Amino acid sequence: MRYHSPTVQLLLVVVTLLLSTSVRRLVYNFLLQVAPVNENLSYDGYLSTGIIACCCGFLGIFLVNLTGIRFIFVCYAVTNVLCAASVVSYYVQGPSAFQVTAMLINSIGYDIGRVATLVVVLAYPGEKWKARALAAYLLVEYFSITMGDVIAMVNPGSTHERYHLSIAYLCLALLAPIPALAIAPSDQVVRDNGVYLVTPKTTLLTELRQTAKMFTNKYMLLLVPYMFSYPFLFGSAEVDFPNITAIVLYDAGKLFIVFMSQMLDVRWTGRRTRGLVGLALLTVFFAASISSTAALRLIKYDVSGIDLSWPRDKIAKYVMAEVFKEQYVLLMTSYFLAGAASSFIELYGYWVMGTLTNDLKSSGRFVGTYHSTMAIGGLIGYQLTNRTEHGAYTSNIPMYIAISLTCCSLVCMYFIVRRITETNDWTLGRMNYRGSGNQLEPERSSETIVVITDVKYEHTTDSTHSRATTR
């Protein structure tokens, strides 16, 4: 394989993430003896880190588009080294300001790194691999969290064992910057047919203008409710994970994104039809998930045994053991369906954005906005529920609002999917259909549109070379 091929570059990204994100997710809770909490990647329940996630999506747009992919991954690998070093220092000298600062920096690095990762996963694979590449990335991310939670819950370990494991974690983290430095600049990535990725040069002023301009686009306005609503619903439903069974069932539901990705990629029909069928399946899983959750919450329970002074994890365990014991099967089913629905919605949203453009800069703007809007929705939903009496066990009003918003967002998504073409650009898509009554193959039409967009960019930015560009 060529060094500058998309496949090699994706492999370098994968190795970087395995040595940073995956390792940290596997050992972090175990090393610090942190109990698994209500953790969903679409939002952060803690107010401080949740606000950071909200800001970092938009910040990621400018950093990815102005500094490049390699710079982002190198910086994230370095922040992960700081995180690992802070864990080692925790065992040497106890809690310190360095540990708090390192965790904060790593949280910023993770959010910006996730924006860069999803941009690469959307832009680098060919058309028939986009959904499957997304599914593979999301599954690795989900299940590294799951395994880390299981390890933390079933094996308390000794201080001596955790200290030596923290040293091993630091050693692995120190390796992550090496593959990150080997990542090639995006404008040097070339597909097998000789077509470069579309990565036009940009400036800060251009990025500010183009990002603001996105919110005047009707398709972006239709995407915003979709980005916001389901994390808001998940946060307002406040799904806690008090035992291993709940965690495993939740992530087992996420396995269904493998089926979803196969359906979106395999060329059994046109891309628009696949998108509509995918939206129908997503709606079914959402309806099943919210129906089981609502059924549990609408049942009247005796919560007189709950002491408001208890910590949240103790309240969740009490509810699991005493309040929901007669509906245990329904409860476990709701975890499974919640996992399936949340993964479907995230995968499908990114896949639709991947049908909009092959331009790396435009992908960055979509992904960054998606990341921040999801974080805002989840954080608001979580805070609304968290600040009501007994949390999720008495107030259902936020959930009703969230269900209505999510239903509206699916309708909005329908109007977007109806306009999907076999190219990755609605504005230029018509050019491929002139004089042809048949739809082009997705892979071929995508390459055509890359060439057209690249020529258009060079022609408008460098008039002195316009003849050579269009020749």
TrEMBL record:
Q: Which domain of life is it from?
A: Eukaryota
Q: Which UniProt keywords apply?
A: Membrane, Transmembrane, Transmembrane helix
Q: Which SUPFAM superfamilies match?
A: MFS general substrate transporter
InterPro entries recorded:
MFS_trans_sf
Please list every transmembrane segment annotated in the UniProt record, as residue ranges.
Answer: 45-64, 71-92, 98-122, 134-154, 166-184, 219-237, 243-264, 276-299, 328-353, 365-385, 397-417
Protein name, per record: MFS general substrate transporter
| Taxonomic source organism | Coemansia erecta
